[in-house]
């Protein structure tokens, strides 16, 4: 037969968890009281919350259920050692944050890939007519665009996020964008410079 904890231990753990979860939500004692009243609990003053948390007054079973539900925690978890409960809440929060960050990163990466594809299509298809006229301003913009394409890959985004060094080839593209442009559209550099 398993050993039953003493009633005072459950009461202490409940109080510690009550305060910890209330503070985690950023609620004052008055805010918890107001929410309990709004949920239909009836009269539940801020002083009642204070007296329960300080141990001046025992918590009744019905109150314990209502408080746990309002704090979004099961009654069973309110009886855990407060440190375990805090660690569990922190872990859940960090997992949720990781999921949100992953969703944001995936969305951003999808936009990056779509933007790259649109720019590549434009550079390959949309500028061939204008480039035969050797419009110098357009060449500058297109060269910059190719340099941006080379440095704005999903892999480079990951490297920047990790603060890893950028490969030298990418830096070279930024220093000689005209050569990068010529390689991109498939013209030899010498032919482009001769024109």
Please, could you describe this protein's structure?
- The protein is mainly alpha-helical and 195 residues long.
- It folds into two domains: 7-80, Orthogonal Bundle (434 Repressor (Amino-terminal Domain)); 93-194, no CATH class.
- Helix content is 76%, strand content 0%.
- α2 (29-41) crosses α3, α2 packs across α4 (61-71) and α7 (136-151) runs antiparallel to α9.
- The longest helix is centred in the middle third of the chain and has 45 residues, at 82-126.
- 15% of the residues are buried.
Helices, by number, come to 11
Radius of gyration: 31 Å
Total strands: 0
Given helix and strand content, the structural type is mainly alpha
Largest sheet: none
Alpha carbon gap, first and last residue: 93 Å
Low-confidence stretches: 188-195
Q: Shape from CA axes?
A: elongated
Mean pLDDT: 78
Secondary-structure element series: HHHHHHHHHHH
What percentage of residues falls in helices of 4 or more residues?
Answer: over 70%
Number of domains: 2
Roughly what fraction of the amino acids lie in strands? Answer: under 5%
Oligomer: single chain
Keywords:
434 Repressor (Amino-terminal Domain), disordered C terminus, 2 domains, elongated, 195 residues, 0% strand, 76% helix, mainly alpha
Any chance you could write out the topology, listing elements then pairs?
Blueprint: H1 7-24, H2 29-41, H3 46-54, H4 61-71, H5 82-126, H6 128-132, H7 136-151, H8 154-161, H9 168-175, H10 177-185, H11 189-194
In brief:
The chain has 195 residues and is mainly alpha-helical. 76% of the residues lie in helices and 0% in strands.
């Amino acid at each position: 037969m398993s050993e039953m904890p003493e009633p005072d231990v459950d009461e202490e753990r409940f109080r510690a968890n009550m305060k910890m979860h209330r503070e985690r939500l950023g609620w004052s004692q008055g805010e918890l009281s107001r929410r309990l009243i709004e949920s239909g609990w009836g009269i539940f003053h801020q002083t009642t919350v204070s007296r329960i948390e300080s141990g001046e007054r025992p918590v009744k079973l019905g109150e314990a259920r209502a408080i746990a539900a309002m704090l979004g925690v099961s009654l069973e978890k309110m009886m855990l050692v407060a440190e375990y409960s805090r660690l569990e809440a922190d872990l859940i929060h960090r997992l949720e944050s990781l999921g949100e960050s992953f969703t944001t990163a995936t969305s951003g990466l999808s936009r990056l890939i779509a933007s790259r594809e649109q720019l590549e299509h434009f550079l390959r298809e949309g500028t061939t007519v204008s480039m035969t006229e050797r419009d110098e301003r357009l060449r500058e913009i297109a060269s910059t665009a190719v340099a941006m394409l080379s440095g704005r890959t999903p892999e480079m985004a990951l490297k920047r996020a990790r603060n890893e060094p950028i490969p030298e080839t990418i830096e070279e593209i930024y220093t000689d964008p005209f050569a990068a442009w010529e390689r991109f559209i498939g013209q030899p550099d010498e032919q482009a410079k001769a024109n």
